[in-house]
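Retro notes, structure queue

What went well: the backlog is down to a handful. What didn't: a couple of records were mislabeled last round, so from now on we paste the full input next to the output in the thread. Example, using MFS transporter from Streptomyces tendae:
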Amino acid sequence: MNAAQEAPPGSAEDRRRWIALAVVLTASLLDLVDATIVNVAIPTVQRDLDASYSAIQWITGGYTLAFAVGLITGGRLGDIWGRKRVFQLSMLGFTVASALSGLAMGPEMLIGARILQGVMAAMMVPQVLSIIHVTFRPEESGKVYGLFGAISGIGAVSGPVIGALLVQWDLFGLGWRPIFLINLPIGIVGLIMGQRYLTESKAPHAVRLDLVGVALASLSLLLLVYPLTQGREADWPAWSFVAMVASVPTFVVFVLHQRARIRARSTPLIELSLFKIKSFAAGIAVQLTFGTTFGLFSLTGALYMQIGLGWSAVHAALTSLLFGATMAVSTNVAMRKLMPRFGRTVLQAGALLMIAGLFGYYWVADAQAIGATSWELAPVLVVAGWALGMIMAPLTSAVLANVPFEHAGSASGLTNTVNQMGMAIGLGLASVAYFDVVDGATAAERSSGAAFVDGFTNSLWWAIGGMVLAFLLMFALPSTKPAAPGVEPETASDDVAEPAR
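Corresponding output:
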């Protein structure tokens, strides 16, 4: 346990670590806002830059894909070079990439800047969970993760609303560009505060970065997501299917490479011993499925409201506010009250409630077509938001509950990677579940918005199927309440799988 963890309540050192928490949570909020703020601006960006549907997917999915590819590496870099150092460098890079996004003169430049943003976020975000993990005592985890979950809810709420208002206000005639430029003052303040209040920490035995592992992990993900996103526009050529199939053996080679490094006593990119912890292994599978479902729903839901229903960015954002606000409240209740008492049951109840919300969404969209109103969508948004709050932060807490402190960076990086990998896959699946329906519609259906409503209802079936699978996978999670984060696996023997023989 480090000095910060032993600081007595109310002491100067204790206040310092809570200020440090505010700094890293602000960085997390930046990432969350930036991941969601673009959705409400998509129609404006498309018109202003004359972007294709594929470009739209890459403006959102490029960030997510780069984020997913770099997260494991980002977590490991913090272990090796120091979490404060990596956090500060990545915050600086994120701020610069935000400026480049705001100054983009075409879809290609914007996609490139968004990918750079994703890379920087991939270095920054794992340090958030790692710094939290090594700074606070296990008994403080409920309060800290409750705050982390609340920030997630605030990000989900504020991103679309801020984006919508900035687009509508058209500040200085800049149109959509302030949605990225707003990050500049926040990033600068974060850098100053981080330099003053963050304490350096690193894993005691980390040696060097596994560059071959980075290349193999990145390649396997790219082989899967790139053809999913580009294949539809190219009329699904043979190479798209070959690439997706090739992603599987590439991932197998990556795992074999990690095992070889462990046998050679070299530092692996992924600490495979983490998968001997049942809560971690099962939680990773749930996160992948849930992330895929949410990625698909977030993009298609934004397009449904603004293009299908013809709502303005502000109208769509204010309606979605119900979703994010409900999620923020639900997360706090779930982490502080429900998880300590009911454990896995909370996640399963959230999954069932999300399925009910998605069915309600489908019923409204199908019955009202292009005439759906905010009042008709409000109940299902509240249900879905409450369900999401019962899943997101509790799932993160469950996955990291029994991870040893020395593997905090690797575990948090892998946790975020799997979630973002699912998001990237979900955004790619929009080509099949959503845009294929839009492409197959008549010109009249597209101009009226009906094609975009049909695409959304079709994608909802995919989302429902994903949540059903996530619910079933939750049975593999430990049935008891999760141990406090930072407890060594040896002290939670009922939650550790037997080593493979």
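Agreed that this is the format going forward. Reviewer comment attached to the example: Confidence is low (pLDDT under 50) at residues 483-501.
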